[in-house]
Amino acid sequence: MNALQKTLAIIAMLALVSQSVRHAYRLWLEPRGSVLDKYDQPLKSDIEKASSLEELLSRYDKVRKEADEKRQERLKGTGKDVPYAEEQQSEPYKTERALHDAITDWEKKSAEIHDLRFFWFSGFVLFVLGFVIYKRSNRWFGLTLLMAAFSEFIYWTSPTFFSPGGHEYDRLLANKLAFSVVSLILLLPVIWMGGIFPNTNGKEQAKP
Questions:
Q1: pLDDT, tens digit (0-9, with 9 covering 90-100), for 158-207
Q2: How far is the C-alpha of 43 from the C-alpha of 24, rounded, in Å?
Q3: What single DSSP character describes residue 54?
Q4: Is the pLDDT of residue 57 over 60?
Q5: Is 107 helix (H, G, I), strand (E, B) or coil?
Q6: How far apart, in whole angstroms, are the C-alpha atoms of residue 159 and residue 177?
Q7: Range with lowest mean pLDDT among 40-44, 69-73, 128-132, 203-207
Q8: Cβ pair 163, 169 in contact under 8 A
Q9: How far is the C-alpha of 91 from the C-alpha of 98, rounded, in Å?
Q10: Which pLDDT belongs to residue 90?
């Protein structure tokens, strides 16, 4: 059993350490954007500076009204007749689409933060149960619950694949980093409890 525990502990530690480092890098050190963004994508910078969903919605409401008015003009035949694809690359349709995508992206990240917190705390309940059962009654059953707990920890704190940038993206990364570090700290008493990595101080030597 000790060999299995060592293997699982090594895998869990590797996963939690590596992804914690990655989250920290992406949150604080990763270069973002380009010096050309202010020329090519001025709206992108404004979107990333938004501090709340309500701020994006306020901008979207105004642009949506303008776009709807132009659509009505086109339907009535009073607007400028241009190909649909070309029209979508002009204002206010281009800004409308960008804001729409930004709001959708924000909502997806908010949903992932909610999922992360719910399932991580579900894993924490499994961790407490597993820890107690391992110590007091059944080591195999306790180990099974601990494996389930750390599976939740590692999966829900794993790297996100959402596009970088924006207030909600940083909040998602901060949550994942915090929960990864806490999960790593919780792994330490499990290692100690199971005597998984005993400190022999070099006393054990290979027998001839």
A1: 998 777 778 899 999 999 999 999 999 999 999 888 777 776 554 544 44
A2: 27
A3: H
A4: yes
A5: helix
A6: 10
A7: 203-207
A8: yes
A9: 11
A10: 77
Distance from C-alpha of 57 to C-alpha of 125, rounded to nearest angstrom:
37
Closest CA to 8 of 153, 177, 182: 153
Torsion 165-171-177-183 (CA) sign:
negative
Alpha-carbon distances of 113 from 83, 160, 166, 167, 178, rounded to whole Å: 41, 11, 14, 13, 12
Report the pLDDT value the prediction gives residue 132, as an integer from 0 to 100: 95
- Closest alpha carbon to 163 in 95, 201, 106: 106
| 83 upstream amide cis, omega within 30 of 0 | no
Tell me the residue type at 3: A
CA distances from 96 to 49, 87, 121 (A): 17, 12, 38
Domain boundaries, the chain: 2-29+48-194
Least confident window among 58-67, 83-92, 116-125: 83-92
Q: How far is Cα 150 from Cα 126, in angstroms, rounded to an integer?
A: 9
Measured CA distances, 31 to 19, 35, 164 (Å): 18, 11, 10
Please name which of 77, 50, 6, 85 lies closest in space to residue 171, comparing C-alpha atoms.
50
Given phi > 0 = left and psi -120 to 50 = alpha, else beta, which region is 94?
Answer: alpha
